[in-house]
Amino acid sequence: MSSPALIVLYGSQTGTAQDTAQRIARQAQRRRLQVQVLSLDSYNVANLISESLVVFVCATTGQGDPPDNMKNFWRFLFRKSLPVGSLCRLDCAVLGLGDSSYPKFNFVAKKLHKRLVQLGASVLLPVGLADDQHDLGSDAVIDPWLASFWEKAFALYPSLADVTPLREDEPLPPMYTFQFLEDVKEKTDDRLRIPSEDTVPSQSHPFPARLVSNKRVTDLSHFQDVRHIEFDITGSSIQFAAGDVVMMHPCNAPEHVQQFCQLLRLDPEARFTLRPTHNTTVPARLPQPCTVRHLVESYLDIAAVPRRSFFELLSTFSTNELEHEKLLEFSSAAGQGDLHSYCNRPRRTALEVLADFPHTTAELKVDYLLDLFPEIQPRSFSIASSLKAHPHRLQILVAVVCYKTKMHQPRRGLCSTWLASLDPTQGEVYVPLWVKKGSLKFPTEKDTPVIMVGPGTGVAPFRSALQERTAEGQTANILFFGCRSESNDFYFRSEWEDMMKAGQLTLFTAFSRDQEEKVYVQQRVRENAELLWDLITNRGACFYIAGNAKQMPAGVCDALKEAFQQEGGVSTEDAERMLEAMERMGRLQSETWS
Questions:
Q1: Which of 143, 275, 394, 583 could anchor a disulfide with 588, C-beta 3.0 to 4.6 Å?
Q2: What is the per-residue pLDDT for 188?
Q3: How far apart are alpha carbons 172 and 31 in whole angstroms?
């Protein structure tokens, strides 16, 4: 049997599955195999019936949902009209990347694996279920799974085993080559193109929304800086409902851009075009020609904690013995514990790694920048306003991420820090953004009560829902809000008070640090068991949870089950079943993040 062409297809939300797919492709290239890497939605799914060898790498998002860049593929693959044996020529394998702290751990990979088998595909090995919660991260599963995959592929295609692979220290060709332009006149940046009237803003055509206000809503004495930010979306044709999210690409800090250009001896004003070296297209987000500054500021994720693949590639350039040895160690399976201690635990950034390996950095060729650094991924925020209350406006509530590790500089969230730095009082500021459907759906029936549990910034989607519902005369609204202190971080307090006075809201609060005994929202849920039982069982109420995914969502669900047992006299098992039934019917929904 001749050597097959390998197709690696990925569904990735944050870039991890894409990074893993590219890692598999590099392994294939080293084995001198023809390989193509594509997101599932940019692949023509009709070709799947004639492929011979495919690896699927997919993440799971939200409540067991497929990532955005595989949604069309997902819909097609689960069509009932697809014949049972339609993939009988396909040999494939499925690798899932997940996080076991979420209830629907690796749900997409498991479901995809099952569906491929249903359609007659030959699955070479059990589905790989990588877990971000593992001490050594996802690689603890990915490494042995990949070794097993290549073993099976060699058994299936013996000709592969006869090929002498490229040495690990031999660099593969870059994805693109940079063609620098002699003419140094600055071209107008096209980031702020206004999409034409009939274009709904999207990731490929974001709308440049004017920043109207950027206000701190926590007391200045409070450790956490939280911002209430408003954008003007006039003329954008953007529509959204309660529960929807806004997406945006953040930019790297000017000082990081400057440091990066100095380390790599790059002129930030130099202009270039990109030329693909094999069957790839130039990234749509990069104008052609492009300046080095724009590439580094808006595209290369230099402030992220680098993945193992970063060290693998760096090691192929390094000629300094000490640095080379260290990079090889960080690239190896045995060195993952050390890499975790060096990089993941202190949250060391790629830029800081380059500064730690100066000899290797000096040898870096500009052509490899897009192989080395992933693209900055878009960030999502729950929309905290309704168009019914604020026409032509979109508001968000953002906690600015900043914390200490053993590193000298505090660690800062890329997007929240960038947003906090934007000051509309110093001149007009535009942020390219687009909106997508969120996971929370609110009832349209006027009399259906809504119970919302949203501590901290988790309250954002519920402010949107309350503005929408009160505008429509829906007054059966119950909100459980929690924060540290009534005086420091009680977001939107005056709005809740106005709604209560107008008979549009029942509010329960938990201020965890305002007394000796800490009090959380789950405690308030327990205390109001009778009310909740009545609303849920007699009035068909819907129950929503939004906020940090640590202990809160599980704590709230446990409190709700206890309410069912206490007020309804049901067993633990029946209370669990009631909760599951509510979830199935869309009457229990959650949107959580880690």
A1: 583
A2: 44
A3: 11
Q: Is 58 left (phi over 0), alpha (psi -120 to 50) or beta?
A: beta
Residue 190: band (very low, low, confident or very high) from pLDDT cuts 50, 70, 90: very low
Position of tokens 């599980």?
554
Contacts of 289 (CB under 8 A, 6+ apart): 181, 187, 271, 272, 273
**205 contacts 195 by C-beta, under 8 angstroms:** yes
pTM: 0.89
Q: For the purposes of burial, counting CB atoms within 10 Å of the CB of 108, is it exposed (0-12), middle (13-18) or buried (19 or more)?
A: buried
Of the candidates 200, 188, 308, 302, which has an alpha carbon nearest to the alpha carbon of residue 253? 302
d(CA 312, CA 23): 10
Which residue do the tokens 């305002």 mark? Answer: 514
What's the rounded Cα separation, in Å, for the pair 389 and 382?
Answer: 16
Residue 579 binned pLDDT confidence (cut-offs 50, 70, 90): very high
Q: Is 171 left (phi over 0), alpha (psi -120 to 50) or beta?
A: beta
Question: For residue 127, what is the DSSP state?
Answer: P
pLDDT tens digit sequence for 231-268: 999 999 999 999 999 999 999 999 999 999 999 999 99
Choose among 386, 443, 474: nearest CA to 586: 443
The span from the CA of 218 to the CA of 215, in Å, is 9
- Whether 26 has a pLDDT exceeding 50, the answer reads yes
Average pLDDT taken over every residue of the chain: 92
Q: What residues have CB less than 8 Å from 498, skipping those under 6 apart? A: none
Under a CB-based contact definition with an 8 Å cutoff, are residues 314 and 271 in contact? no
Beta pairing partners, 480:
453, 508
How many angstroms separate the first and last alpha carbons of the chain? 47
The residue with tokens 């997902």 is 74
**Spatial distance between the Cα atoms of 268 and 478, rounded to a whole number of angstroms:** 53
> H/E element holding 452?
strand 450-453
| Predicted local distance difference test score (pLDDT) of residue 194 | 53
- Among 41, 50, 95, smallest CA distance to 73 is for 41
Using omega within 30 degrees of 0 as the cis cutoff, is the peptide bond preceding 289 cis?
A: yes
Mean pLDDT of 50-69: 91
Residue 370 in this model has a pLDDT that exceeds 90: yes
For residue 379, pLDDT over 60 is answered with yes
Three-class secondary structure assignment of 250-305 = CCCCHHHHHHHHHHCCCCCCCEEEEEECCCCCCCCCCCCCEEHHHHHHHCECCCCC
Look at residues 470, 475, 453 and name the one whose alpha carbon lies nearest to residue 462.
Answer: 453
Q: What is the pLDDT of residue 185?
A: 53
Question: pLDDT, tens digit, for every residue of 92-110?
Answer: 999 999 988 887 899 999 9
| CA–CA gap between residue 44 and residue 465 (Å, rounded) | 38
